[in-house]
Amino acid sequence: MEFLSPMGWDRARGYAHGVAATGKLVFVSGQVGWDAHRRFASDEFPDQVKAALENVAIVLSAAGARVEHIARLTWYVTDKAEYLRLQREIGDAYRAVMGTHFPAMSVVEVSALVEDRAKVEIEATAVLPS
Question: What does pTM read for this prediction?
Answer without folding.
Answer: 0.94
